[in-house]
Design goal:
alpha+beta, five-stranded antiparallel sheet, about 25% helix, globular
Length: about 130
């Protein structure tokens, strides 16, 4: 059982900020900014890619509501909404979760760095990825 399942089950305490029949939201115990929140489905899904669509949409609706509220209540200048799928993408807990990270300046503790990859054939990739 992963740490988020243990939190959902009440085996590990948390700083709960929201709960309904589908999900639980709590403050991250290793926050990168004031108000850093994690939203998890109560039902176990290993990652966003295998999450039931109805649950996924519910989670994202809750995330949007909470993120908007956090930005307003905490006087944040914005926020990052982040989920990672699979270890190579940075997922460290095998339970679908979304981070809400209020941002106050570009000196906050969160960084997302994008480095352009040279030599990618965008036309070829477009043909592979086009959904008909």
């Amino acid at each position: 059982m992963d740490v988020f399942c243990k939190i959902v089950n009440g085996d590990i305490p948390c700083y709960k900020v929201y709960e309904d029949e589908v999900c639980l939201a709590f403050l991250d115990v290793n926050p990168v900014s004031k108000g850093h929140t994690i939203v998890v489905p109560k039902q176990h899904f290993e990652e966003a890619l295998d999450c039931d669509m109805e649950v996924y949409l519910h989670i994202m609706k809750v995330v949007k509501t909470l993120a908007t509220t956090w930005v307003n209540k905490l006087d944040a200048k914005g926020c990052n909404i982040v989920t990672n799928a699979k270890e190579v993408a940075g997922q460290t807990v095998p339970h679908f979760h979304v981070h809400i990270i209020p941002r106050y300046s570009d000196e906050d503790g969160y960084r997302a760095e994008y480095v352009k990859q040279e030599g990618l054939d965008l036309v070829e990739i477009m043909h592979v990825l086009t959904v008909e």
